Write the structure tokens for this entry.
Amino acid sequence: MTNQSPPTNSNRLLEANKDIFSRIEQLGLDVIYDDVLDTVFFEIGGPRKAFNVPINEDVWLRIDPTTMEVAAAEIPLYLAGVVRNRPQLAKFIAELGVCTARECSRSLQPEEAKKVGHLLQTWIYALAAN
Amino acid sequence: MCLLDLPDHCIDYRGRRIEFPLSAVQHISRRHPEVYAYLPRICEVLTDPDLVFSRPGENTHIYYKLGIYIDEHSPKYLIVYVRYNGERSVRTAHATRFFPYRSYLIHQRTDIT
């Protein structure tokens, strides 16, 4: 019992997130490193209630249970594991200007937010395909 | 709920002390608002988990317990990440229906069918 395939309703997930780029544009996208939790978050419009679904070994999407909108991506054990396990992802996050020496939060500029939007979209498709 | 009233540590199913510092409480509340109402029950997850997974490379155990987190859409586990690196300490918590990848099951409650 080391795994379980994610989502249930792929069509609903895709439908709810087809406007993700306009949501990001409207609500903003923050990247946060929380040093106490050792976790990186990409949050659309700030924290909100959600449940977590794993995309792969290191990344969880946070999904609003009512709307099925992706509210955030969560990357726990960032320094403890992700930096070693996923150097490309870590490089991408570092290039966004996230510091990991302490808690750090940045609201991304539109071009940066768009890049993260593409990453989120990739994860949404991955989730829907499983 | 007053966050200061929460315990500063829990005892897990093997009798180990798990630190639950106020800083972790505050951060979980902020980043995982869905867990806020369940913070007083975090120790239950650690004391009597349904399942515990290990991620040895990251010195982390992930404790799973059903029946605490209430969701009108579907049953979900309340899960708690504990890092052990010298002391054991709660790192984060959230709600999910899914099990972690690249993890090994190291404990299962014996009365689960």
